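Notebook entry, structure prediction.
Reason for the run: the old model in the group folder had no record of what sequence produced it. Starting over properly, with the input documented here first.
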Amino acid sequence: MPDETLRLPNTIFQAVFDLGDKRAAKIALPPRLREPEIFAEWQDDENVVSLYVGFDDGQLHLDLGANGGEHHFHGANGDASENSPWNEPDTAVLLSWSSALAANFFERMPELMEDIEEAAAWHEEGYPLYVCETEPAKLDLIEVEIEGEILTLPWLGSGGVSQDHVDGENHPIALLWNPVDGATPDRTIARAWLDPVSGEPVTSAEQGVDWPAVGLERDEVLSWLEGIYLNHHITPDAEIELVHAVLERMGGLDREQ
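New structure, fully documented this time:
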């Protein structure tokens, strides 16, 4: 387990964006559905916004493009369904709110996502504030707290390594290694994935690895991989936090309305 005392302090970052009309904020969600977990992705190759709205007892997934939208639900067990896990009146309001939120987000694409990516780059450079370039408009100040990363050493073994996303549940990755400096890593020596119960990373070493050739002990490699997995696959980065905060503001879920 990586040493949590080596985690950098959290930082507060502010960004000013043009979020459009925020029409979803004018729709009151039913009391039991007022604290959703929300996220959205902009698929620029297809010009589609994918919105995810989650609760303990189910999820709504909505895709919206220039030709309209479609949606489906997931039950508490995660299985996809055309049937809502909530009653009809609550579902109708949730769909209206989600459609308005997705439409607002879609109308601001791709400019808003470009602004978010640029703001995240500013945060990476150590700046505390980003202001988008815009014509005169009503703007929103977004403030997020970015969790600090765990300090990790560079790869100190022989050769070089890289990470590779692999198919499977719980976000698995493979650690690839090559003993030749500069060569493409192509040998899997360890794997990491997310424990679905604890939410913590789990690591395992491959069988038959020549650890003296790798240049590090097995446990050293697994500890290093766990830190890398935490930083890059669990700890939300500035871009993720900004997207989440933007959606909350657009949807009227924060306190700044």
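Summary: The radius of gyration is 21 Å.
The old model has been moved to the deprecated folder.
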